[in-house]
Design goal:
The complex is a heterodimer of chains A (111) and B (114). With 111 residues, chain A is mainly β. In chain A, 0% of the residues lie in helices and 55% in strands. Chain A has no helices and 11 strands. In chain A, the strands form 2 sheets. In chain A, strands 2, 4, 5, 9, 10 and 11 form a 6-stranded mixed sheet that branches. A 5-stranded antiparallel sheet of chain A has the order 1-3-8-7-6, with no helix packed on it. In chain A, a hairpin with a 7-residue loop joins strand 9 and strand 10. The radius of gyration of chain A is 13 Å and the shape is globular. In chain B, the strands form 2 sheets. In chain B, strands 2, 4, 5, 6, 9, 10 and 11 form a 7-stranded mixed sheet that branches. The chains are: A mainly beta (111), B mainly beta (114). At the A-B interface, strand 4, strand 5 and strand 10 of A face strand 5 of B.
Chain lengths: 111, 114
């Protein structure tokens, strides 16, 4: 089955800096890569996703890049704000409807 | 739609007791998932259903765990007997599946087994 590794487990940045979270996956058949954000005490919510036929996708201050050859994808957050503080989960789907999640990255944005 | 609804939000019980967690998926969603979240393991998929039928329960940790989906609008996750190591947040999620892979999570149940 699919295996997703996510790094770092914790990321601390100053407000206004950029943050990058990286994930690798094992199954070359994976074709869908969502990112979920979970604020403290809240439910995970989808913030952005990318499919394997696209190399990059942007939505305001967040972007995701995909390198299919290397089997890794990354979440980029620019001009971080305190409200970006949360746990971020990457996931990969290998052709079924069941995404495999990474372990999560706790992002802390210091004012 | 009110989204995925889970109950209870918090459950505190003593070791050995039966625990039942409940979930109402979004109307029209064909897939329902049960996840367990802990600091050590992150988000673990326990079981998922498609059109009320259990498809993969390989993530269910032990025979003490069981899940049912008697109809399209209701699912339960039962732990009997409960143990302290079962303490975690349990999330239910649903999705349309086939053409829309986005998962909609419920608010979760914080389970504490003393």
């Amino acid at each position: 089955g699919e295996n997703v590794e996510q790094h770092p487990s914790t990321l601390s940045v100053q407000e206004g800096d950029s943050a990058v979270i990286k994930c690798t996956y094992s199954d070359s058949a994976s074709n869908y890569f969502p990112w979920y954000k979970q604020e403290l005490g809240k439910r995970p919510q989808l913030i952005i996703d990318i499919r394997s036929n696209v190399g990059e996708k942007k939505d305001q201050r967040i972007a995701v890049t995909l390198n299919k050859t290397a089997k890794h994808f990354s979440l980029h957050i620019t001009e971080t704000q305190p409200e970006d503080s949360a746990v971020y989960f990457c996931a990969a789907r290998e052709g079924s409807y069941i995404p495999t999640f990474g372990r999560g990255t706790s992002l802390i944005v210091h004012p | 739609d009110a989204g995925v609804i889970q109950s209870p939000r918090h459950e505190v019980t003593e070791m050995g007791q039966e625990v039942t967690l409940r979930c109402k998926p979004i109307s029209g969603h064909d897939y329902l998932f049960w996840y367990r979240q802990t600091m050590m393991r992150g988000l673990e998929l326990l079981i998922y259903f498609n059109n009320n039928v259990p498809i993969d329960d390989s993530g269910m940790p032990e025979d003490r765990f069981s899940a049912k989906m008697p109809n399209a609008s209701f699912s339960t996750l039962k732990i009997q007997p409960s143990e302290p190591r079962d303490s975690a947040v349990y999330f239910c999620a649903s999705s349309l599946g086939a053409t829309n892979e986005k998962l909609f999570f419920g608010s979760g149940t914080q389970l504490s087994v003393l």
